[in-house]
Amino acid sequence: MKHIGIAAVTAEGAAITYKYICSASEQVFGKHTHPEISIHGFSFSEHVNFGPERLKKWQDLLVRSINKLEATGAQLVICPSNTPHEVYEQVCEKINIPWLNIADEVAKVAEQKQYKKILLLGTQFTFNSAFYPNAFEHLAAEIVIPTDEEQVLVHSMIVDELVSGVVSENAKQAMQGLLSKYAQQGLDSVILGCTELPLIIDEALTHMAILDSTQILGDAAIKAATN
């Protein structure tokens, strides 16, 4: 098995992904067995206090984090945070080990499931970035972005609550209303394009199929570790 590196951004996203890889690996390798895993993360304040050169700062943090993971023996790396994938291509030019792209892995599953009209949820940065549309551009599927007001609402839920592991009743109700609206409009699935969104969304709430980027990335890492 290959050594998996986790370039952490938020504690919740990294912890959820780490736990999922350890538990899901048992279905592949046997009880209590999983690949070697190393996690590195800078203070989350480094990621959110980025100043005017956001993309440059994220590139620097990820390159440094991945280099540290490589130095521990990691042979491939994942970043269980969707937002920083905006700088995926720039970072890949500066690192020596493979970095699995979360959006590409989600697109592979969407293609296998033949979903056609897919709601994207995530941070404001993810909504405004092209990395999900680019990953889906070769598929016969439509990515639906929430309204500007809904984008602000979802972003606030994530950064004010979920990244700290907080799930308020107000947030649950607001999310349920948003998901019900898009289910009624005929969307067949929703991308949880933030690794903390599984804390607040499950299939009973959505009435749509879930493309959980956290689990999909974990499954891809397990598969890559066996090759």
Write a structural description.
This protein is α/β, with parallel strands linked by helices and 227 residues long. It has two domains: 4-101 and 216-226, Rossmann fold; 103-212, Rossmann fold, CATH 3.40.50. It has eleven helices and seven strands. The protein has helices at 11-29, 44-48, 54-71, 88-92, 102-113, 124-128, 131-136, 148-160, 169-184, 203-206, 213-226; strands spanning 4-8, 37-41, 76-78, 117-121, 142-144, 189-192, 209-212. Strands 5-4-6-7 form a four-stranded parallel sheet. Strands 2-1-3 form a three-stranded parallel sheet, sandwiched between helices. Helix 1 links the parallel strand 1 (4-8) and strand 2. Helix 5 crosses helix 11 (213-226) and helix 8 packs antiparallel against helix 9. The chain is globular and about 50 Å long. The N and C termini lie close together (8 Å). The relative contact order is 0.17. The model has no long low-confidence stretch (mean pLDDT 93).
Structural topology:
Blueprint: E1 4-8, H1 11-29, E2 37-41, H2 44-48, H3 54-71, E3 76-78, H4 88-92, H5 102-113, E4 117-121, H6 124-128, H7 131-136, E5 142-144, H8 148-160, H9 169-184, E6 189-192, H10 203-206, E7 209-212, H11 213-226
Parallel strand pairs: 1-2, 1-3, 4-5, 4-6, 6-7
Helix pairs in contact: 1-11, 5-11, 8-9
